[in-house]
């Protein structure tokens, strides 16, 4: 079953009959094609019609999500988020049309809508056309927007080039957002990122500010001599969590080149 | 607990948010207005409306204030027909966003034909979307402009209980109340309403359908006007229930008609808000009064910025 059908099934199951009927009728109407004003109004009506409660999912639903779209993690979605993404998938068309609609919706979106459309990124057709939208999301000064792209989302690891990926990981640390929910964190680790993270650790040390233990996870596999000295510093002076992280990073570090 | 129904927070600083939260303001409404100078394109209007439904709402949440807004084409910019037409096309995209509690602030400035045309079209939009209306009454020729605003709202079939007439004074209030509209008063030094006069008005007319706001913006104005006026009323012997009505309850009743401003937003925020948008410190179960932090005292000798 494709993601759109899954969303429709989950929503119809949980919503009161009237709200569910409204949503499915809108989906059919949007699929058939409506004026731009009606498309936008339909998407805007969603939270008032469906409410904002959590979307209730069990293990089988999550497995179905993974089967429909590897990496798709709908845990923590709300009814209105699911409804908005459903209508966008139904009425968005394809190719450049879809990209234009997504861009238009995001340009006039409120907070909850922005989060919904960004969480929907892995479900959209022609994923490479939406890279700018994802980049805008992680560039945002609003942590929930950043996390809608960066966390529990396969899109960045699949679509971001190395500079974009590295900026996203570093920014997560910078704004105090955890790294663990970033999909593909170990697979996309690279030497440049390791160097950027060590520089960042030095800045934090100089300012007398704490360093997140998560920082060292992306350093280990690419640790050069300088990075090893930083890890040793973290081992000596960090708290228990930082020491454990530094030890794990040293374990993951490549063997020293013979000199 | 206070609600300030008229605040242009995009022009205010984080110090203001902190002071408002400390003084007990739990929610504020940002009416769409001009920027002090005319916009030259619909693009800047789109970005402005995006800001008040997005970034500003988020920013307020970081200080424990709930932020709502009204969407509309203001009377000054209604006089630029090309801009006004383009804005009318995009208003429906914003009018149903979360936290939009009314179409506003709309009405008259110089009472021109174009102002009249777009006021009427926006009243129709409010009716189509079942939203309340916030009416800006003109500074010049105020009494006539206020009467005319109510005439036109009635002509378009709006129920007075759905319409807030703002920026009232001693000359306009009697008719507004008599006709069944909500009467807003902006405590704004020099031009609109002073708060000692406000105390006298509440004493004379009672609290029913009266709403006190600050209209704080980029000019010399006071984001604490509502709590200060409440305190002045207290010292003037106005009963506590009346103070609560004009600084909280009436605002909630009027703009709550949108369905977008339930009291639970600040008394008992949904988990999804706490996770994402709102860093409130007033989260209590069971409808108790939220904890109001004592005003942050600034020690003039503390020069440290960590």
TrEMBL record, chain A:
It comes from the Bacteria. This is EboA domain-containing protein. It comes from Dankookia rubra. The lineage of its organism: Bacteria, Pseudomonadati, Pseudomonadota, Alphaproteobacteria, Acetobacterales.
TrEMBL record, chain B:
This is Hydrolase TatD. The keyword Metal-binding applies. Keywords: Hydrolase, Metal-binding. Belongs to the metallo-dependent hydrolases superfamily. GO terms for molecular function: hydrolase activity, acting on ester bonds; metal ion binding. It holds the Pfam family TatD_DNase.
């Amino acid at each position: 079953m494709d993601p759109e059908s899954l969303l429709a099934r989950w929503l119809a199951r949980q919503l009161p009959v009237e709200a569910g009927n409204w949503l499915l009728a809108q989906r059919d109407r949007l699929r058939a094609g409506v004026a731009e004003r009606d498309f936008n109004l339909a998407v805007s009506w969603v939270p008032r019609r469906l409410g904002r409660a959590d979307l209730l999912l069990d293990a089988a639903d999550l497995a179905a999500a993974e089967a429909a779209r590897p990496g798709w993690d709908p845990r923590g979605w709300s009814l209105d988020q699911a409804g908005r993404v459903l209508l966008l998938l139904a009425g968005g068309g394809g190719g450049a049309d879809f990209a234009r609609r997504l861009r238009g919706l995001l340009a006039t979106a409120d907070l909850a809508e922005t989060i919904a459309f960004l969480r929907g990124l892995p479900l959209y057709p022609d994923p490479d056309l939406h890279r700018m939208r994802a980049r805008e999301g992680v560039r945002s000064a609003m942590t929930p927007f950043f996390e809608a792209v960066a966390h529990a989302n396969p899109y960045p690891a699949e679509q971001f080039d190395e500079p974009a990926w590295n900026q996203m990981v570093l920014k997560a640390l910078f704004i105090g957002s955890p790294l663990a929910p970033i999909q593909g964190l170990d697979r996309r680790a690279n030497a440049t990122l390791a160097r950027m993270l060590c520089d960042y650790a030095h800045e934090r040390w100089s300012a007398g500010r704490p360093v997140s233990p998560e920082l060292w996870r992306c350093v280990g596999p690419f640790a050069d001599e300088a990075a090893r000295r930083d890890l040793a510093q973290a081992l000596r002076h960090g708290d228990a969590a930082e020491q454990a992280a530094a030890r794990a990073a040293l374990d993951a570090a490549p063997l020293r080149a013979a000199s | 607990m206070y609600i300030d129904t008229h605040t242009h927070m995009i022009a205010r600083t984080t110090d203001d948010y902190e002071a408002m939260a400390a003084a007990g303001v739990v929610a504020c409404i940002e009416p769409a207005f001009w920027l002090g100078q005319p916009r030259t394109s619909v693009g800047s209007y789109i970005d402005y409306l995006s800001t008040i439904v997005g970034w500003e709402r988020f920013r307020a949440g970081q200080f424990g204030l709930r932020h709502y807004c009204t969407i509309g084409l203001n009377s000054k910019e209604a006089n630029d027909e090309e801009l006004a037409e383009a804005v009318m096309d995009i208003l429906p995209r914003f009018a149903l966003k979360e936290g939009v509690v009314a179409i506003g602030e709309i009405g008259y400035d110089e009472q021109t034909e174009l102002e009249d045309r777009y006021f009427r079209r926006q009243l129709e939009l409010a009716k189509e979307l079942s939203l309340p209306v916030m009416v800006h009454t003109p500074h010049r020729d105020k009494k006539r402009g206020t009467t005319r605003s109510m005439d036109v709202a009635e002509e378009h079939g709006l129920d007075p209980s759905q319409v807030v007439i703002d920026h009232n004074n001693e000359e306009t209030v009697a008719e507004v109340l008599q006709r069944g509209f909500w009467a807003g008063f902006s405590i704004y030094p020099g031009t609109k309403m002073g708060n000692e006069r406000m105390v006298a008005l509440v004493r004379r007319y009672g609290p029913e359908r009266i709403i006190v706001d600050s209209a704080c913006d980029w000019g010399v104005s006071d984001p604490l006007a509502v709590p200060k006026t409440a305190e002045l009323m207290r010292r003037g012997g106005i009963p506590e229930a009346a103070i609560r009505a004009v600084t909280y309850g009436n605002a909630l009743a009027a703009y709550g008609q949108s369905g977008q401003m339930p009291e639970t937003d600040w008394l008992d925020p949904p988990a999804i808000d706490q996770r994402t948008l709102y860093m409130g410190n007033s989260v209590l179960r069971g409808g108790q009064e939220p904890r109001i932090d004592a005003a942050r005292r600034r020690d003039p000798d503390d020069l440290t910025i960590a």
